[in-house]
Amino acid sequence: MPYGAGKYGREVAEIQRQFNADAVLLMVIGGVRGESFSVAAPVEMLKQLPEMLRYVADQIEADMRKVKS
């Protein structure tokens, strides 16, 4: 669940507080409570998130093209 309290909502809120961060994104794969994607961010920043994630995905793909299989 990208917005609102998810499986790891408490952890996301704690990380945000601990680091005094404007936003925190947490993606858990194979976690003890299962897979989850949680975000703690102001709505205006959340609106920019899809574009930011597309950029990150493009960078990951570019890096993977450089890796020799």
Question: What does it look like?
Answer:
With 69 residues, the protein is of the alpha+beta class. It has one domain. Helices cover 49% and strands 14% of the residues. A two-stranded antiparallel sheet has the order 1-2. A hairpin with a 7-residue loop joins strand 1 and strand 2. The model has no long low-confidence stretch (mean pLDDT 89).
User: Main β-sheet: number of strands, strand sense, barrel status?
Assistant: 2 strands, antiparallel
* Number of continuous helical runs: 2
Strand proportion: 5-15%
Shape: globular
Question: How does the SSE layout of this entry go?
Answer:
Elements (H helix, E strand, L loop, with lengths): L8 H10 L5 E5 L7 E5 L2 H24 L3
Antiparallel strand pairs: 1-2
What's this entry about, in short?
By secondary structure, the protein is an alpha+beta fold. It contains 2 helices and 2 strands; from the N terminus they run H-E-E-H. It has one domain.
Q: Tags for this entry?
A:
2 helices; 69 residues; two-stranded antiparallel ribbon; globular; alpha+beta; single chain
